[in-house]
Amino acid sequence: MKSDHAVENAGEYPKKGALRENIEAILVAIVIALFIRTFVVQAFKIPSGSMKQTLQIGDHILVNKFVYGIKIPYLRKTIVPIKKPQRGDIVVFKYPVDPNKDFIKRVVGIPGDVIEIRDKKLTVNGERVNHEHGIYTDPRILPAHIRPRDNFGPITVPDSALFVMGDNRDESFDSRFWGFVDYKALNGKAFIIYWSWDKENFGVRWSRLGRILK
Question: Residue 4: inside a domain, yes or no?
């Protein structure tokens, strides 16, 4: 008899109001979105031409945030290491000079690598590196005492740090100018273009959508 009575009165409990249900749904969605943005994937927009031709101004990209490990938010301490950055990875990171800014560059040197540039020719550990994605648009060769753009090093990449450069080598403000990127500064690895807007021609670059970054 008790079970029958319980069934009869089950419908007498007050139902959640529609407003309360909507608020709860929104809060759950916000928590999930923040979790994904913090630990899984984050969107970024390309504001400059330092990574041309790989990335164009107006490209919108997604960054894999857990590929290099799971970090404690704000402390940026890795608690679950997964893999280390490799040469050729396109990474987004906190700009060492101003952590409020996010930069995107390509990894050229990993810990222990010796980096040297002579007359725009890049060598890593004494071997010439010819990146198919690296472009040079200025025929001038600048001496090191004027700017370190075309003549730099040799210098050894320290532990838990990276040497990064933009693919648009003559128009990139990168490790040649401000030094190394610490692992703690990494946001993640860029892996796809999900949207691209050409501001000058006021149109979508349809051919770039869904392009996997290499």
Answer: no
Instruction: Return the active site residues.
Output: 50, 105
Q: What is the CA radius of gyration of the chain?
A: 24
Q: How long, in residues, is the chain?
A: 214
CB distance 53 to 135 below 8 Å:
yes
Is 9 part of any domain? no
CA 196, CA 78: separation in Å to the nearest integer? 32
pLDDT tens digits for range 138-149? 999 999 999 999
Q: Is 185 helix (H, G, I), strand (E, B) or coil?
A: helix
Residues lower than pLDDT 50 in the chain: 1-10
Cβ neighbourhood burial of 35 (10 Å; 0-12, 13-18, 19+): exposed
E strand map for the chain: 41-45, 59-64, 70-72, 77-80, 90-94, 102-109, 114-118, 121-124, 127-128, 152-156, 161-165, 181-182, 186-198, 203-204, 211-212
- pLDDT value of residue 3: 44
Task: Tell me the torsion sign for CA atoms 123, 93, 198, 62.
Answer: positive
C-alpha span between 62 and 92 (Å, rounded) = 10
The whole-number pLDDT of residue 17 equals 75
What pLDDT is recorded for position 14?
Answer: 56
pTM of the model: 0.82
Domains identified in the chain, total number: 1
- Examine residue 26 and state whether it is found in any structural domain, yes or no: yes
Q: Percentages helix, strand, coil for the chain, rounded to the nearest 5?
A: 20, 35, 45
Distance CA 102, CA 93 (A): 6
